[in-house]
Amino acid sequence: MMDLQKLEEQISELPLYTYFYVKPESIEFSDRIRYICKAECPMYGRTWACPPAVGEVAECKAKCLSYENCLVIGTIVEVTDSADIQESLATRYDHEKITNQVRDLMKEQGVQPYILSTEACAVCERCAYLDGLPCRMPGKMHPCVESHGINIIPTLEENGLDFVYGTNIVTWYSLFFF
Ligand code: SF4
Q1: Residue numbers of the domain that contains 64
Q2: Is the previous residue joined to 138 through a cis bond, with omega within 30 degrees of 0?
Q3: Based on the structure, what is the number of domains in the chain?
Q4: Which atom of ligand 1 lies closest to the CA of 134?
Q5: Between 23 and 91, residue with greater pLDDT
Q6: Contact at 8 Å (CB) between 15 and 8?
Q7: Which pTM does this prediction carry?
Q8: For residues 102 and 21, is the Cβ–Cβ distance under 8 A?
Q9: What is the pLDDT of residues 95-119, one digit of tens each?
Q10: Is the pLDDT at 5 greater than 80, yes or no?
């Protein structure tokens, strides 16, 4: 059993914009989001962290719903121009670092969360998926939230957060199912 109070004390020290808990069954899973991956994301079919490698939306949903709780963390960064993809993407690495810090805090308590994070996996220079080989570092690879068909917007709204996407603001979210 995880000591949530201890975890909260620790994560409140991290540079997070927000964190809160939700019940996995309150999260919206939708095939429409998967359709957007397929139709619009250049990473579709290019890493183990993306569809179709992650499985059908129904399988992803079943996996997430097999956990009792979900911790959501969010970071927010100011950039000079959020239309500058390179600059915006660079901020993602700081978010990933914080995601791994939270993972380590949970692991210290003997909890192995199932983590969904941002964008496609960029741990290896060339993903093993492209060569038909198994993932080299499954422990470090976090599929992205959208890859599981998750529409995060209603979850944010239910928790009093707007999905702000100002011209100079970039927000990133990770989910930890445990
Ligand atoms: S850890 Fe490497 S092999 Fe695994 S999904 Fe990420 S890039 Fe691909």
Answers
A1: 4-177
A2: no
A3: 1
A4: 3
A5: 23
A6: no
A7: 0.93
A8: no
A9: 999 999 999 999 999 999 999 999 8
A10: yes
Query: How far are the Cα atoms of 16, 26, 142, 161 from residue 130, in angstroms, in the given order?
Result: 34, 34, 17, 37
Q: Best of 93, 96, 115, 135 to mutate for ligand 1, by most ligand atoms within 8 A of CB?
A: 135
Residue 68 φ/ψ, nearest 5 degrees: -85, -30
What is the pLDDT, as a whole number, of residue 82? Answer: 64
How far apart are the CA of 117 and the centre of ligand 1, in A? 14
What type of residue is 63?
Answer: K
Point out the ligand 1 atom lying closest to the alpha carbon of residue 136. 3
Share the mean pLDDT of the chain: 92
Helix or strand holding residue 103 (H, E)? helix 85-108
For ligand 1, which residues put their CB under 6 angstroms from it?
Answer: 47-49, 121, 123-124, 127-129, 135-137, 140-141
- Ligand 1 pocket, mutate which of 140, 141, 144, 147 (most atoms under 8 A from CB): 141
- Nearest protein CA to atom 4 of ligand 1, as residue: 135
Measured by CA distance, the residue closest to atom 1 of ligand 1 is 137
Instruction: Quote the pLDDT of residue 12.
Output: 94
Residues 6+ apart with CB under 8 A from 72: 18, 19, 20, 21, 22, 155, 159, 173, 174, 175, 176
Residue with tokens 């570092």: 137
Q: For residue 163, give the DSSP letter.
A: -
